[in-house]
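A quick aside before the break. I want you to see a complete sequence-to-structure record at least once, exactly as it would be stored in a machine-readable document. Don't worry about memorizing anything.
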Amino acid sequence: MKTKLISFFCFSLAVTAFGQQKQSDTIKKSWKYEPNFLVGVDVLNLGTSAFSDRKLMQAFVSSRLTKKWHVVADVGFDKNIYQKNGYDAKVNGTFFKLGSFYMLSQDSENIYNGFYAGGKLAGTFYKQEYFAIPVRATGGGADGTQSLAESQQSSYWIEAVVGGRVQLFGSNFFIDVNVQPKYLLYTTKQEDVFPMLVSGFGRSSGKFGFGFSWNIGYKF
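That is the input. The structure line, written in tokens, reads:
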């Protein structure tokens, strides 16, 4: 009797393991990437550019790789001025970002709706010009300023991205809102002057920055 029970138990385990393996193989084989793209424009910063010194235009394209993982790329142009604490500078240039994010929660009826978190690597190539840089005089003389001619610079940073997406009334349009804490990894310097502005990063008198975007996207 014991022998029959043991044999039946072993047979049941074998069937269960084989069934799970077949199911796992089916799931793996059933997944296949199908081209899909969501293209969007940051309308918030584009709109506020008309009323501020900063002219920021940026767009993104993302693609769903798996049910929850998406890859995303950004491109933009940033023109800004800095007039504070004796500094007078301007910059303009193009920036690029590449990264991915994971859907933390999803709508059961539309997997593109939900909240996400991820990260990006970013870089920019920009022109900067300093009209005034405060200089402390030596020997008891009066403090003054110096200027630096226009030069080509580059900077690189990493940023986290946390946000959410929601479809608009069953159409192919989506609202995508996210925040971006940033950390400046490396920047070139002109005559050892740390840049007060970095295109795409913002004011960078420190290594930490923060961004916000409100996008309208279209799914192809």
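Two observations worth writing down. Confidence is low (pLDDT under 50) at residues 1-28. Residues 34-219 form a domain with the Porin fold (CATH 2.40.160.20). We'll return to this after the break.
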